[in-house]
Amino acid sequence: VLADTEDTWSAIFEQAGHRYEEPSLVLFTGRVSSACGLASSAVGPFYCPADKKVYIDLAFFDDLQSRHGASGDFAQAYVIAHEVGHHVQNLLGISGKVSAMRGRPDYNQYSVRLELQADFLAGVWAQQNRRYLDHGDIEEALRAANRIGDDAIQARTQGKVVPHAFTHGTSEQRMRWFGRGLQSGRIEDGDTFEMPYESL
To answer: Which residue numbers in the chain have pLDDT < 50?
Structure first.
């Protein structure tokens, strides 16, 4: 999957007159040290802009199936493509702008915008590879997006939904933005920062 994202994003960047810098992939279980600090498996998969590495906790894939009810190889591919989406955002300078807003009262909203755009970029990757996918693959990705939305996770773990604490977006938003990327296939159609927050 990582090799496939490299081919896809290299071609997209080249069409735009840029060179795609490939991220490194770090597989771990338990805990890992990154340029963004020490992370435990509680964090799940993440991207660290400081070292341009995608960190995938292999135990998360077990959780995706057992705790979140989102099984399948393409559900896992969606997770990787989402983290690579953060790498694309980093290369485009988007991550840095959002990081500079840390500490603002509305920072969580910018975090949600960043995450939904990463879902969109995962959809762009999937669209570029549509010829290899069947309907079941897309369903697996959408089910994963649905099961790891902030509202779904909060409802399962806390018994209530707290919208102002969202960091990744609702299940519906995550599915919608992945679907938009899948339908469009164009980076420029995924600007989650221009529209009003309520319209995401």
So the answer is: none
